[in-house]
Design brief:
The chain is mainly alpha-helical. 64% of the residues lie in helices and 4% in strands. The protein contains 8 helices and 2 strands; from the N terminus they run αααααααββα. It has helices at 8-12, 14-22, 27-31, 41-63, 75-81, 89-107, 112-115, 129-161; strands spanning 118-120, 126-128. Strands 1-2 form a two-stranded antiparallel sheet. The longest helix has 33 residues, at 129-161. The model is unreliable at 158-164 (pLDDT under 50).
Protein backbone atom coordinates (compact mmCIF):
# COMPACT_ATOMS: atom_id res chain seq x y z
CA UNK A 1 0.00 0.00 0.00
CA UNK A 2 1.22 3.46 -0.85
CA UNK A 3 2.57 5.64 1.92
CA UNK A 4 2.07 8.83 -0.04
CA UNK A 5 0.06 11.88 0.92
CA UNK A 6 -1.26 12.01 -2.65
CA UNK A 7 -5.04 11.58 -2.69
CA UNK A 8 -5.45 8.57 -4.97
CA UNK A 9 -9.16 8.48 -4.06
CA UNK A 10 -9.68 11.94 -5.58
CA UNK A 11 -7.94 10.64 -8.69
CA UNK A 12 -10.28 7.65 -8.80
CA UNK A 13 -13.34 9.85 -8.37
CA UNK A 14 -12.34 12.43 -10.98
CA UNK A 15 -14.90 11.17 -13.47
CA UNK A 16 -17.82 10.92 -11.04
CA UNK A 17 -18.51 14.64 -11.37
CA UNK A 18 -18.26 14.50 -15.14
CA UNK A 19 -20.70 11.62 -15.31
CA UNK A 20 -23.13 13.57 -13.13
CA UNK A 21 -22.66 16.68 -15.29
CA UNK A 22 -23.45 14.90 -18.55
CA UNK A 23 -26.19 12.65 -17.19
CA UNK A 24 -29.31 12.87 -19.31
CA UNK A 25 -27.65 14.59 -22.27
CA UNK A 26 -28.64 13.27 -25.67
CA UNK A 27 -26.07 12.17 -28.23
CA UNK A 28 -26.87 15.35 -30.15
CA UNK A 29 -26.15 17.49 -27.07
CA UNK A 30 -22.92 15.60 -26.38
CA UNK A 31 -21.70 16.25 -29.93
CA UNK A 32 -22.88 19.88 -30.26
CA UNK A 33 -20.15 22.43 -31.02
CA UNK A 34 -20.38 26.20 -30.72
CA UNK A 35 -18.01 26.53 -33.69
CA UNK A 36 -16.06 24.23 -35.97
CA UNK A 37 -12.83 24.79 -33.99
CA UNK A 38 -14.56 24.37 -30.60
CA UNK A 39 -14.76 21.09 -28.75
CA UNK A 40 -17.97 19.24 -28.03
CA UNK A 41 -18.55 17.46 -24.72
CA UNK A 42 -17.63 14.20 -26.47
CA UNK A 43 -14.35 15.72 -27.65
CA UNK A 44 -13.58 16.96 -24.14
CA UNK A 45 -14.10 13.42 -22.87
CA UNK A 46 -11.80 12.04 -25.56
CA UNK A 47 -9.17 14.61 -24.64
CA UNK A 48 -9.32 13.48 -21.01
CA UNK A 49 -8.69 9.88 -22.10
CA UNK A 50 -5.77 11.09 -24.21
CA UNK A 51 -4.46 12.97 -21.19
CA UNK A 52 -4.79 9.80 -19.09
CA UNK A 53 -2.75 7.91 -21.67
CA UNK A 54 -0.03 10.56 -21.60
CA UNK A 55 -0.03 10.70 -17.78
CA UNK A 56 0.22 6.90 -17.70
CA UNK A 57 3.23 7.00 -20.00
CA UNK A 58 4.90 9.85 -18.11
CA UNK A 59 4.57 8.14 -14.72
CA UNK A 60 5.94 4.87 -16.07
CA UNK A 61 8.79 6.67 -17.84
CA UNK A 62 9.74 8.33 -14.55
CA UNK A 63 9.56 5.05 -12.63
CA UNK A 64 11.76 3.42 -15.27
CA UNK A 65 14.42 6.04 -14.62
CA UNK A 66 14.33 7.46 -18.12
CA UNK A 67 16.25 10.66 -18.61
CA UNK A 68 14.38 11.79 -21.73
CA UNK A 69 12.05 14.76 -21.55
CA UNK A 70 8.49 13.77 -20.81
CA UNK A 71 6.35 14.03 -23.94
CA UNK A 72 4.10 16.90 -24.82
CA UNK A 73 1.11 16.23 -27.03
CA UNK A 74 -0.87 18.38 -29.42
CA UNK A 75 -4.30 18.02 -27.85
CA UNK A 76 -6.23 19.64 -30.70
CA UNK A 77 -4.53 17.46 -33.32
CA UNK A 78 -5.13 14.34 -31.24
CA UNK A 79 -8.84 15.14 -30.82
CA UNK A 80 -9.41 16.00 -34.48
CA UNK A 81 -7.12 13.26 -35.81
CA UNK A 82 -9.03 10.53 -34.05
CA UNK A 83 -12.40 11.97 -35.15
CA UNK A 84 -13.37 12.04 -31.49
CA UNK A 85 -16.76 13.64 -32.06
CA UNK A 86 -17.86 10.53 -33.95
CA UNK A 87 -17.18 8.47 -30.83
CA UNK A 88 -19.68 7.42 -28.20
CA UNK A 89 -19.45 9.27 -24.86
CA UNK A 90 -20.31 6.13 -22.89
CA UNK A 91 -17.50 4.18 -24.55
CA UNK A 92 -15.08 7.04 -23.97
CA UNK A 93 -15.99 7.24 -20.27
CA UNK A 94 -15.57 3.47 -19.95
CA UNK A 95 -12.04 3.78 -21.34
CA UNK A 96 -11.30 6.73 -19.05
CA UNK A 97 -12.43 4.86 -15.96
CA UNK A 98 -10.41 1.79 -16.96
CA UNK A 99 -7.22 3.84 -17.33
CA UNK A 100 -7.76 5.64 -14.04
CA UNK A 101 -8.47 2.36 -12.26
CA UNK A 102 -5.39 0.72 -13.77
CA UNK A 103 -3.17 3.64 -12.80
CA UNK A 104 -4.58 3.68 -9.27
CA UNK A 105 -3.43 0.08 -8.82
CA UNK A 106 0.10 1.24 -9.62
CA UNK A 107 -0.19 4.34 -7.42
CA UNK A 108 -1.25 2.21 -4.46
CA UNK A 109 1.96 0.17 -4.80
CA UNK A 110 4.33 3.14 -4.86
CA UNK A 111 6.60 3.93 -1.96
CA UNK A 112 7.25 7.43 -0.65
CA UNK A 113 10.55 7.40 -2.52
CA UNK A 114 8.86 6.45 -5.78
CA UNK A 115 6.24 9.20 -5.39
CA UNK A 116 9.09 11.68 -5.12
CA UNK A 117 10.78 10.48 -8.32
CA UNK A 118 10.75 13.15 -11.00
CA UNK A 119 11.15 13.51 -14.71
CA UNK A 120 11.82 16.55 -16.85
CA UNK A 121 8.80 18.09 -18.55
CA UNK A 122 8.79 19.67 -22.01
CA UNK A 123 9.72 23.03 -20.43
CA UNK A 124 12.87 21.51 -18.92
CA UNK A 125 11.45 21.62 -15.38
CA UNK A 126 11.46 18.68 -12.96
CA UNK A 127 8.04 17.22 -12.18
CA UNK A 128 7.48 14.57 -9.50
CA UNK A 129 4.93 11.80 -9.75
CA UNK A 130 3.40 13.21 -6.55
CA UNK A 131 2.63 16.40 -8.51
CA UNK A 132 1.32 14.65 -11.62
CA UNK A 133 -1.65 12.98 -9.91
CA UNK A 134 -3.17 16.10 -8.29
CA UNK A 135 -2.46 18.02 -11.50
CA UNK A 136 -4.54 15.46 -13.37
CA UNK A 137 -7.43 15.91 -10.90
CA UNK A 138 -7.19 19.69 -11.34
CA UNK A 139 -7.11 19.21 -15.12
CA UNK A 140 -10.36 17.26 -14.96
CA UNK A 141 -11.88 20.15 -12.97
CA UNK A 142 -10.89 22.61 -15.70
CA UNK A 143 -12.64 20.46 -18.27
CA UNK A 144 -15.66 19.99 -16.05
CA UNK A 145 -16.08 23.77 -16.14
CA UNK A 146 -15.61 23.63 -19.93
CA UNK A 147 -18.38 21.04 -20.19
CA UNK A 148 -20.68 23.34 -18.21
CA UNK A 149 -19.89 26.19 -20.60
CA UNK A 150 -20.57 23.97 -23.61
CA UNK A 151 -23.91 22.93 -22.12
CA UNK A 152 -24.85 26.56 -21.53
CA UNK A 153 -23.91 27.47 -25.10
CA UNK A 154 -25.84 24.53 -26.48
CA UNK A 155 -28.93 25.50 -24.46
CA UNK A 156 -28.61 29.10 -25.61
CA UNK A 157 -28.23 27.95 -29.19
CA UNK A 158 -31.36 25.82 -29.00
CA UNK A 159 -33.32 28.63 -27.38
CA UNK A 160 -32.22 31.21 -29.93
CA UNK A 161 -32.99 28.93 -32.87
CA UNK A 162 -36.55 28.55 -31.60
CA UNK A 163 -37.16 32.30 -31.44
CA UNK A 164 -39.57 33.74 -33.99
Amino acid sequence: MSQSTVDVQAYLQAYDQIEKEIEGLTDEQLKWKAALESWSVTEVLAHLVDHSIVVSFRVREILAGSEVKLPLFNQDAWVSGQKANKGDATDILTAARALVQYNSLLFNRLTVEEWSKAGINFKGEPVAIAAIVPAFVAHVQVHLAQIRRIKQGESGSLNSSCAI
